[in-house]
Every structure is written in C-alpha cells, then in structure tokens.
Fold this sequence. Notes:
Elements: H1 2-13, H2 19-60, E1 64-68, H3 77-85, E2 90-105, E3 108-117, E4 131-134, E5 145-149, H4 150-155, E6 166-171, E7 186-197, H5 202-205, E8 208-212, H6 213-220, E9 228-233, H7 239-250, E10 254-258, H8 259-262, H9 264-302, H10 304-312, H11 317-353, H12 376-404
Parallel strand pairs: 3-8, 5-7
Antiparallel strand pairs: 1-9, 1-10, 2-3, 2-6, 2-9, 4-7, 5-8, 6-7
Amino acid sequence: MHLPLKIALRYLRAKKAHSAVNIISLISVCGVVVATAALVCVLSVFNGFSQLVGSKLAVLDPDLTITAASGKAIDYADAVVQKVNEIAGVECALPVIEDNALASVMSRQLPVRLKGVPHNYGNVVNIDSAIIDGEVMFGNEYVQYAVLGVVPAITLDMRPGFADMIYLYAPQRTGRVNVANPATAFRTDSVMVAGVFQIEQEKYDRDVIFVSIDLARRIFKYPHQATSIEVRLVPDAKEHAVMSAMSEALGSKFVVRNRLMLEDEAFRMINIEKWVSFLLLAFILVIATFNVIGALSLLIIEKQDSIGIFRSLGATNKQIRSIFIMEGWVISLSGAVLGVVLGLVLCSLQEHFGLITMQSNSALLLVDAYPVVVVWSDILIVFALVAAVGLFTSMVTSLIMRRLLR
C-alpha cells in the first residue's frame, strides 16, 4: 500500500493538465473542511449549553435524591436518613418535604411549591450562593422565616425586612371536610421573608419557597415522613458506585436518582437537538463528497496515459485502482484534519472572546455569547464519520475504475 499512497499524494500535489481538475479538487477538500469544522463547532456549542444548564442546576439540585418507589412519601424518614449517612461516599443526607400550597399576602395570591428543609440544608446544596437579597434563615424561637424564589417575591411584593407576613395554605390530607365551613379544608401557617434567591432556572425561580421542615410537617401533616431524601457526596466519591451501594442497602422500595436523572427532560431535549443537527450536517458532508467523486473521475480520465504506462510496467488493474482509492482517502482525511483544526480554533476563539453573541436581549439570557465545550469523544465521532464517507467515496471510485479498466 506504500507505493499507491505515494503516487496518490503526488497526484494531489501535482499541477493538473486541466485547470478544472485543480478547481474541483480544491473545492472537494474545502467542502470536507467546512463540513467537518461545522460539525465540531455545532457539537461543541450543544456541549456548552449542556454544561451551562448543569452548572445552574447544580446550585439547588443535590448530588443524589432518594424517593419512594411507590406512593408519595417515605415513612420513618429519619431512620432512612441515618442508614444513608452510614454508606461510604456520603457526606450528608437530609430529609425534605415538598408539596403544593397557596401563598397569600393581603389580596395577592400565588400557587407555590413549598419545600421544607432542615436548618443545615446548606450542607447538601449551596443555597447561600443563590441568595440575591437577605440571607438563608428558617426561623427561631419567636418567628418562622422563608426563603423565596425571585418570582414569588415579585408577585407577592415581599422582600427581607418587610413587616407583613406570608400566609400559607395547604389542603387537609386526611379527615373529613366540613361543608358548612370550607376553611377547615385547609391547614394554614405564616412566615416572614428572610431571603430571596435566583438561579435563572424557571424550575426553581418560578414558584419555590423554602421553609423549615418542622413547618412543612405541620402544614402537610407529615409527622415522621419525607417526600425525598437529598444526598451530598464526598468530593472524590464515585457516583455510580455509591448509587449501587445505596440501592442495595435500601432495597426495592426506594429509587435513587442523580442530578442528570432528575433533569432528564432538559438534557434529553439538548441531546436530541444536538444529534439532529449532527445528522443534518453529516448529510451535507455526504453531499460534499460527491465533489470528491467528480474530481477523481476527471483525474482518472486525465491520467489515462499514466495508467497505460503503469500497465506497461506490469501494474495490475487492482494496483491501479488502489492509487485512485487512496486519492479519495487522502482528500477526505486531509479535509477532516484541516476541518477539525479549524473547528478547534474557532471554538477556542469563541470560548475566549465570545465572537458570536446571542441575538436577543442580553438581560433575559444566562450568557451573552454562545458557550462552547470541546468533548474529544465528539471529535472521534466526527473523524469516524469522515472516514466512513471516505470509504464510501473509495468504493464508488473503485466501481468507476472497474468500468474504465476493462
């Protein structure tokens, strides 16, 4: 294979007798370069969006979340928490109660998700980093406090330091409702505002209010239950190993999920868009390879005299075909190398200088410029695709040669 490759490289560098062959060869290489660079850039942008979403969710999403396999609540949650804390790799596990409620301040009302957490909740998630006003505090012996998402704070027109109370209403989970007195269908409590948080994620900013777990247990009538157990792992823990150990220790009555599983829908949509874009650009790459086939066909016609000389020197049809098959591979792979290098350069420039910005109101966006993250497995996939396309080109070239060398 050394001699056919050497001749193919010489044909690629040598000046052609007809300028059309030079032009088509250059267009062929440029087409592969541009399509490959576009694949690298697009995949890197989607990786950037995935990392951006993950970094925002990491603020208030725990490393692991344990829920009941059936039903809404985990019975005797404190005993389960104690068992989880004994598992190797677990730094802290805490019970959490989350359910729907109604928040009311005078005439202003808002359906909210009330999330009851222990006072040391900061040991599981970094809630302090999300505070934009006030502080994280859930109460003392005199008064109960809440930490509001930015949308509830705006809708209810409440902030730290206000004297007004937020009244919380939750429907009775058990017992009968007195039709003559509908107010008995609800349990109620009140809190003051200690802080306001914002992480620029609708899931939390839109309707979440953090309160103490004791208040949540009273208003939802969960005396010893929890709707979930949130877990923080030690920094060097192997997540999947800890999840397996946790599932084995707790049994089939519990479901253990990591952060990606909890946000499966968001990441799935990004991945779908990523690979649909990949397929569209791959189709463009395949179309670009038809230029390679055209260039090789013209080169075969131009080199008829050289083919005759090769035959006179004793070369077989198979050896002659291999020269032009190598030519197709060289064009495809050289285009792939140049395209990957160009794509990496563009990604680096975008990462450091933000050359391409979002065409929208920057105040409404998490970032001003498109984020990029290069994942080397994606680069390998792009290379594999170009190699497969090069193989396709070589197969077509081989068929053309068979007909011309009869």
